[in-house]
């Protein structure tokens, strides 16, 4: 399949990119890694006269610590997130997630920012980013604003980003000492059928668990009933509570039959992987 | 305003500097196969799932079916035609031959290039790391064991 003709613009700074978008309006789109956009253009699902390539914008490849946040620029690829020492040391669960996105070619070209903006409902990153309390910064004609990750994904292929805004940073607060994270996903296709992000923290002897479920609904789901059921339960005693809490949560999930599996199958997967992710986050056997 | 109908790109192809003019919407696979007559790059799934169209851009595997030719500007590109030197197969190519790590051969250029990229960065991968890295290269003859044996022989 070939692409319908377009013009390619290659600005080197943010305001030039915004000006091009203002000039060409809805006939134009921002372009970076291309792993989602070029596929949609080839399939003629989308059509633009102008692509505004962000890859030459100075500073957009930033991946750094800024105070207590990790800042991920819009050109940072999944492969960089999987291999960068800063991510591997401070957020190993996120590095592992990135190492399992798509395949090596998708990881080498595809950016996290593009993944979030495209908002494929079966993408891995949103659930863990919600759990981590991440936010995204978007720049538009009227300046910049910050959106919590939990409010950014609005549904399949729909985000809080306006079409003329550029996602310029993903900010992840560095975890506090003693909080442990895990992300587990499973499926038979390029995207997972279900993904579960879990965190465990022992505060003054009071264990606290947090759980988000991705890929199964239109946007990441905060598993508050699981968290409530597990609150205060020591890791060694999870086996008394966790299976029932996971199954009760899974039964309520808005799963539907699709190519990833039947609704029943996906609810089963969710129960299994809620259990495994929570156990692994708490360092317990049975999490593998 | 500059003429945007075509873009001049300069890049290194299999070690040789090149300058070409390409349409901004030209896909890398079409540029390689049709303009440069490098037919070793194979089109198969066309949606960056199978790996048959893999080329290396600055040493990393890329799906040329879903990349713009314009984006290799300033970069180094290696195709399957660029691995042998003076008629001598590269170590990865030779290992695939020695282990008969191919059946129909259609996935082989992508397999060989992905393996080349893996070993460039991780000269001593474990079997699990090899399987993980090559997970995105599909052999529909399902001849994976021979391929795995070929790669392991290089570690």
UniProtKB/TrEMBL annotation, chain A:
Keywords: FAD, Flavoprotein, Oxidoreductase. InterPro entries: CO_DH_flav_C (IPR005107), CO_DH_flav_C_dom_sf (IPR036683), Diverse_Substr_Oxidored (IPR051312), FAD-bd_PCMH (IPR016166), FAD-bd_PCMH-like_sf (IPR036318), FAD-bd_PCMH_sub1 (IPR016167), FAD-bd_PCMH_sub2 (IPR016169), Mopterin_DH_FAD-bd (IPR002346). Residues 1-177 form the FAD-binding PCMH-type domain. It comes from the Bacteria. GO terms for molecular function: FAD binding; oxidoreductase activity. Gene3D superfamilies: 3.30.465.10, CO dehydrogenase flavoprotein, C-terminal domain, Uridine Diphospho-n-acetylenolpyruvylglucosamine Reductase, domain 2. Pfam families: CO_deh_flav_C (PF03450), FAD_binding_5 (PF00941). This is FAD binding domain-containing protein.
TrEMBL record, chain B:
Gene3D superfamilies: 3.10.20.30, [2Fe-2S]-binding domain. This is (2Fe-2S)-binding protein. Residues 7-83 form the 2Fe-2S ferredoxin-type domain. InterPro entries: 2Fe-2S-bd, 2Fe-2S-bd_dom_sf, 2Fe-2S_ferredoxin-like_sf, 2Fe-2S_ferredoxin-type, Beta-grasp_dom_sf, Diverse_Oxidoreductases. It comes from the Bacteria. Keywords: 2Fe-2S, Iron, Iron-sulfur, Metal-binding, Oxidoreductase. PROSITE patterns: 2FE2S_FER_2 (PS51085). The keyword Metal-binding applies.
């Amino acid at each position: 399949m070939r692409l319908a003709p377009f013009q390619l613009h290659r600005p080197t700074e943010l305001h030039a990119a915004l000006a091009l978008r203002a000039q060409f309006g809805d006939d134009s789109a921002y372009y970076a890694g291309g792993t989602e956009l070029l596929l949609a253009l080839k399939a003629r699902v989308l059509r633009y006269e102008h692509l505004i390539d962000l890859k030459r914008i100075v500073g957009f490849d930033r991946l750094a610590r800024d105070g207590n946040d990790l800042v991920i620029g819009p050109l940072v690829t999944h492969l960089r997130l999987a291999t960068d020492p800063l991510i591997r040391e401070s957020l190993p669960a996120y590095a592992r997630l990135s190492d399992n996105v798509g395949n090596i070619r998708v990881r080498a070209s595809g950016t996290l920012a593009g993944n979030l903006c495209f908002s494929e409902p079966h993408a891995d990153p949103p659930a863990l980013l919600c759990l981590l309390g991440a936010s995204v910064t978007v720049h538009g004609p009227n300046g910049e604003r910050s959106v919590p990750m939990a409010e950014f994904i609005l549904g399949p292929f729909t985000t809080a980003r306006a079409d003329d805004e550029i996602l310029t940073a993903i900010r992840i607060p560095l975890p506090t000492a003693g909080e442990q994270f895990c992300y587990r996903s499973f499926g038979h296709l390029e995207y997972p059928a279900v993904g579960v992000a879990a965190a465990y923290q022992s505060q003054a002897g009071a264990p606290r668990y947090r759980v988000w479920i991705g890929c199964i609904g239109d946007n990441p789901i905060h598993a508050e009933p699981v968290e409530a059921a597990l609150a205060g339960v020591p890791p060694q005693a999870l086996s008394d509570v966790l299976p029932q809490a996971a199954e009760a949560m899974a039964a309520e999930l808005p799963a539907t039959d699709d190519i990833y599996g039947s609704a029943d199958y996906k609810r089963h997967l969710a129960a299994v992987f809620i259990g495994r992710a929570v156990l692994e986050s708490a360092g317990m056997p049975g999490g593998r | 305003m500059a003429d945007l109908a075509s873009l001049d790109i300069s890049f290194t192809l299999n070690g040789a500097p090149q300058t070409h003019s390409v349409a901004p919407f030209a896909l890398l696979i079409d540029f390689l196969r049709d303009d440069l007559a490098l037919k070793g790059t194979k089109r198969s799934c066309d949606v960056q799932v199978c790996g048959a169209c893999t080329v290396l851009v600055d040493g990393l595997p890329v799906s040329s079916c879903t990349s713009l030719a314009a984006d290799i500007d300033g970069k180094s590109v290696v195709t399957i035609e660029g691995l042998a030197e003076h008629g001598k197969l590269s170590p990865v190519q030779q290992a695939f031959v020695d282990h008969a790590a191919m059946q129909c051969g259609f996935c082989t250029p992508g397999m060989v290039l992905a393996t080349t990229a893996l070993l460039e960065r991780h000269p001593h991968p474990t079997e699990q790391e090899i399987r993980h890295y090559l997970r995105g290269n599909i052999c529909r003859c399902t001849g994976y064991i021979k391929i795995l044996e070929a790669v392991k022989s290089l570690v």
